[in-house]
């Protein structure tokens, strides 16, 4: 395995903020790495350094001579009037048939391939950019928040693409479900240090918490022992008969050291508005049509959302999810039909157009004072602001200098200061880090009001949604199933499309005829079934060993032994993952 990219003793700072402080990491040609860390930790800055767009203050980035980097561009690389096919040919210098073949992997065909690329939605434009990446044949992909604004279908297509991509990837994302599906290792950036964990995101988060608890337990034991030794030394060092024992204990005391546990970073705390639970319909539509004067998006909509429900609006990009939310909140007039909210409904809205049009010259505190309910004290405002990490001098920051994540948190803070019993949230997870999304999910689960929301974060949707409303092909209706059922249907549609495309590629070959072919097929099936059983036994055995080792690791007080156990656990995780992949491969081929 070759090291494609190495970061060595990297230092980088902006003013008083230290982003990299002696950071070290390397990426080999056979790994897909999920890159995580809090908003503002420096992940995007490091990506720009790796791309050569910024320089380190000190340290170095070492590249393999045959490194070919593919970077998913966030800006618009398209020329007015060109089609997706024109762009792919211009960008890659590849012939039209090759560009069309790669574009087909992302379902780019017909008007999506041959029509004006600038008229496509953001999700479809991302598909075009991904096809362009593949045409350059990179051996390392750098993806910065690739799932932002992508619908579920495109996310699944991207996962399939990355699963089949046999080269290395470094993926910055706050989407736990996406990272879990695509990345076998996790790179964490916190307090200026890079830490590579040889496992998936969920295992990393579990390990992180377990190590913190383990170190706290060990430190408690060490501190108790230190107190005991100090008491003995103080009592006996002046006594001639016990002075030598006291000196011996003093040497023991010098050797006893606690493990340094870094103080936890400030944690986001979100408390949803405190409202009384209500019953009956919150909103009802009759023969509703939504859209714009020149075009109707969906019609004949018969919906009823009950008080207390958490209604998830799902559907592909461009189908009308945001149009529906804007119509429900009154920022867009219905094209036809009727819509009625229940009595005493107080609606709070969180949407992209809200946090991108905030008053630039106001400070955080001034904005929250303006948005809060009359009678709210300054201390209450500061408490809510502090719970979303606007503390001390940060409340005096002007909105124009806030990052996307900070603006999103500021909008959340303004909602929390209200008394809304209806929350309408359009993509609330965009620009928020993992910890903030988790805090928001917990708050919405405890909220007694009604939530109507859309999100492309599958982890968030699965936790929150109590009912599903699908916007598709000009209709809006209740989906008869939970979010898992919806995801299953989306996966099946993508899989069916891939099978159809692969069948079209397959061509001749035919099936072997006669009894010999049949017997050969039976022998192959038996051999496969035997291999599957063997794999299942090995996986079960490894699971048992991993559990025993993990239990031992949690009670181990020797740092050297703990490191050995951790390395052993990482090895078994890697072996188990390979066995599971083979098991899935065999089952995919047989069932």
The radius of gyration over CA amounts to: 28 Å
Mean pLDDT: 83
- Determine the number of helices (DSSP H or I, runs of at least 4 residues): 19
Q: Could you tell me how far the N terminus lies from the C terminus, measured between alpha carbons in angstroms?
A: 34 Å
Describe the structure in brief:
This protein is α/β, with parallel strands linked by helices and 591 residues long.
Characterise this structure.
The protein has three domains: 3-204, P-loop containing nucleotide triphosphate hydrolases (Rossmann fold); 281-491, 3-Layer(aba) Sandwich (Rossmann fold); 536-550 and 563-591. The chain is 47% helix and 20% strand. The chain has 19 helices and 19 strands. The chain has helices at 43-50, 84-92, 96-104, 111-114, 122-135, 152-164, 176-182, 201-236, 243-255, 321-329, 352-355, 364-371, 378-387, 404-416, 434-446, 458-464, 483-506, 514-555, 559-590; strands at residues 3-14, 17-28, 32-36, 58-63, 69-71, 140-144, 168-172, 185-190, 193-197, 281-292, 295-301, 304-306, 310-314, 336-341, 347-350, 422-426, 450-454, 467-472, 475-478. The strands form four sheets. Strands 5-6-7-3-8-9 form a six-stranded mixed beta sheet, covered by helices on one side. A six-stranded mixed beta sheet has the order 15-16-17-13-18-19, sandwiched between helices. Strands 10, 11, 12 and 14 form a four-stranded antiparallel beta sheet that branches. The longest helix has 42 residues, at 514-555. The radius of gyration is 28 Å and the shape is globular. The relative contact order is 0.09. Residues 507-519 have low confidence and may be disordered.
């Amino acid at each position: 395995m070759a090291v494609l990219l190495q970061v060595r003793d990297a230092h980088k700072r902006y003013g008083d903020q230290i982003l990299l402080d002696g950071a070290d990491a390397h990426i080999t040609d056979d790994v897909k790495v999920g890159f995580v860390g809090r908003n503002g930790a420096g992940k995007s800055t490091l990506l720009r350094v790796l791309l050569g767009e910024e320089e380190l203050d000190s340290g170095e980035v070492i590249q393999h001579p045959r490194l070919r980097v593919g970077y998913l561009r966030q800006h618009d690389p398209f020329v007015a009037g060109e089609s997706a096919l024109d762009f792919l040919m211009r960008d890659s210098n590849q012939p039209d048939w090759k560009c069309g073949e790669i574009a087909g992997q992302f379902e780019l065909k017909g008007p999506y391939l041959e029509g004006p690329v600038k008229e496509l939605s953001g999700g479809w434009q991302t598909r075009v950019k991904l096809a362009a990446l593949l045409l350059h044949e990179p051996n390392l992909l750098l993806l910065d928040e690739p799932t932002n604004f992508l619908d579920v279908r495109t996310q699944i297509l991207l996962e399939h693409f990355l699963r089949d991509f046999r080269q290395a990837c470094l993926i910055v994302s706050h989407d736990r479900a996406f990272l879990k599906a695509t990345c076998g290792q996790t790179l964490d950036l916190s307090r200026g240090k890079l830490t590579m964990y040889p496992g998936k995101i969920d295992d990393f988060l579990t390990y992180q918490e377990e190590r913190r608890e383990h170190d706290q337990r060990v430190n408690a034991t060490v501190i108790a022992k230190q107190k005991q030794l100090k008491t003995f030394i103080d009592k006996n060092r002046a006594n001639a008969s016990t002075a030598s024992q006291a000196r011996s204990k003093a040497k023991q005391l010098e050797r006893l050291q606690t493990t340094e546990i870094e103080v936890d970073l400030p944690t986001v705390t979100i408390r949803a508005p405190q409202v009384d639970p209500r019953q009956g319909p919150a909103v009802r539509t009759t023969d509703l049509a939504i859209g714009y004067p020149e075009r109707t998006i969906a019609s004949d909509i018969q919906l009823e959302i009950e008080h207390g429900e958490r209604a998830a609006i799902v559907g592909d990009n461009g189908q009308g999810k945001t149009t529906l939310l804007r119509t429900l909140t009154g920022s867009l007039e219905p094209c036809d039909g009727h819509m009625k909210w229940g009595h005493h409904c107080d609606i709070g809205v969180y949407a992209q157009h809200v946090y991108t049009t905030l008053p630039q010259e106001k400070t955080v505190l001034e904005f929250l004072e303006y948005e809060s309910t009359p009678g709210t004290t300054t201390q209450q405002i500061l408490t809510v602001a502090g719970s979303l990490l606007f503390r001390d001098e940060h409340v005096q920051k002007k909105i124009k200098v806030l990052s996307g994540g900070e603006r999103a948190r500021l909008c959340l803070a303004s909602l929390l200061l209200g008394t809304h019993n209806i929350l309408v949230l359009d993509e609330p997870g965009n620009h928020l880090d993992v910890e903030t999304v988790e805090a928001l999910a917990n708050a919405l689960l405890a909220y007694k009001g009604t939530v109507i929301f859309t999100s492309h974060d599958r982890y968030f949707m699965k936790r929150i949604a109590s009912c599903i409303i699908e916007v598709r092909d000009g209709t809006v209706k209740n989906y008869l199933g939970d979010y898992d059922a919806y995801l299953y249907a989306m996966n099946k549609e993508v899989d069916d499309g891939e099978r159809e495309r692969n069948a079209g590629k397959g061509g001749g070959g035919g099936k072997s005829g006669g009894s010999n072919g049949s017997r050969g097929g039976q022998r192959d099936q038996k051999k496969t079934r035997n291999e599957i059983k063997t794999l299942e036994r090995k996986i079960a055995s490894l699971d048992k060993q991993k559990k025993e080792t993990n239990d031992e690791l949690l009670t181990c007080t020797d740092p050297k032994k703990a490191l050995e156990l951790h390395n052993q656990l990482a090895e078994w995780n890697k072996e188990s993952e390979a066995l599971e992949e083979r098991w899935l491969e065999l089952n995919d081929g047989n069932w």
